Structures are given as C-alpha cells and as structure tokens.
Amino acid sequence: MRIIKLSCFEGANKARGLAVIIDVFRAFSCAPLFFHFGAKRLILEADTERALDLKHQISDSILVGEVNEVPIEGADMGNSPSEVVLRGKEFFEGKTVIHRTTAGVAGVHGAKAECEKILLGSFLIAKATAQYIKKSGAPQISLVAMGARGREPSPEDEACSEYIEHLLTGKSYDHVAAMGKIVFHHSAKKFIMGTKPYLPREDPIFCLQRDVFDFALIVEEEDGLLQARQVRPKF
C-alpha cells in the first residue's frame, strides 16, 4: 500500500487511486451525523446555485450549506455539527440532505475525475475508514487534508490525515500533541471565541471526537449527482 499525503484543492486535484477527502471543521463531521439521525440520502453538490435548485426539485430534501463558512441564503441550515445534533432525528429522518461546502464537498468534486474511489474523512469515522481501506486492497491511497477553505493547510485536517495513516500503517501518532496544535490555532479559536453565530463554540467538541461511528462514507455518482453512502466494514 502506497500512501500519499496531500493538502487543499491542489492536493485534491492531484489525488489518485483511492482518495480520502478530509474535512474535520466541519463538512465531514456533519456527514456521518446526517446518517446517524436517519437521513436516507446525502448529495454532495459544490455549486451553490445547483444546490439551491436541487432543494426545490427533490421532495423531502434539506439543504445544508455554506460559502466561506457563512450559511447559504435559502438553505435550511449552515454547516454546523452542533446544529445537526440540536435538530436531531425529527429533522433528518427519511430526508435527502443536499450538502454544499467550500472545502470538503468542493474537494470531492475536484478529486472525482482521476480517482478510482473516494471516501469522506473526519475523526468521527477514521477507524471505519481505515478498516474499509485495508479490506479494499487498494494499492495507492491519497489522504487529502482540505484545510481552511481548501487554500491553507489546517492542523485539524493534517492531524486527521496522520491519524488515518497511523491506523493503516502503525506509524507513530500522538493525539495529545495533535490536539495541542489544533485548539490553540486560529482554525479552532474562531469557534471558541464565539464572535460569529454561524461558528458555534460547540462545533469543535463534536468534530474532534475519534471513532464515534462504525461506518465509512463512500462517494458514488448516480444520475449525474455525487452521493455518499454508508459502508460498514467488519472489525
């Protein structure tokens, strides 16, 4: 197994083989929560206008999205895991979620042309993701840490990439050291400061939990749409 670690949009465009697109703050921490609360379908749409159109076209759909962290006007909610938890099963069960984000979702679209498979990556599903990769037998793995808005590396995504590499290979990983880099960096402090309502203080608490769910999320194209579905590797 050959592992290549990449970052940001440039990295997504260079990804080959089986790619894991990592977005800890916050897209792919939200994604497993949608399924936990009973969503039946998750569509990943990078284009804002198309995402809004899909919301009107698809019955029983919910648009979760942001542009540079600001919730999309006309969406049902912003890209916040704490808000997902507050809304819960009553809001998501049986619904189609349309997800638009600046880094993670856009990174999936950037990687899709050259990659054989794409998985979504975050701490919440890291162990299940690594287990799926091991069982897949894929010879080349691209771990893409999407970073801040897909343009600047961020410690939470880089740490998640290192953690998945650790799970795959046994390479040393120090989670305490990683958390020290993350929580004192501006990528987390912008939440902790609580100055913007669409960046809740609670979001990093949910995003930084490890191995909460026993499923990975694989991306497939159907009817011209990129969709994520659950896969449960056996441990």
Quick structural overview:
By secondary structure, the chain is an alpha/beta fold. It is 40% helix and 24% strand. The longest helix has 15 residues, at 155-169.
On the 0 to 100 scale, the average pLDDT is 97
The total number of structural domains is: 1
- Please give the CATH architecture: Alpha-Beta Complex
End-to-end Cα distance: 19 Å
Strand order of the largest sheet: 1-8-2-7-9-10-3-6-4-5
Helix content: 40-55%
* Low confidence ranges: none
Largest sheet: 10 strands, mixed
| Total helical elements | 10
CATH class: Alpha Beta
Please tally the β strands and state the result: 10
Account of the protein in words:
The protein is α/β, with parallel strands linked by helices and 235 residues long. The protein has one domain (2-222): putative 2-phosphosulfolactate phosphatase (Alpha-Beta Complex). It contains ten helices and ten strands. A ten-stranded mixed β-sheet has the order 1-8-2-7-9-10-3-6-4-5, sandwiched between helices. A hairpin with a 2-residue loop joins strand 4 and strand 5. Helix 1 (8-14) runs parallel beside helix 5 (104-111), helix 2 runs parallel beside helix 4 (81-92) and helix 7 runs antiparallel to helix 8 (175-183). The model has no long low-confidence stretch (mean pLDDT 97).
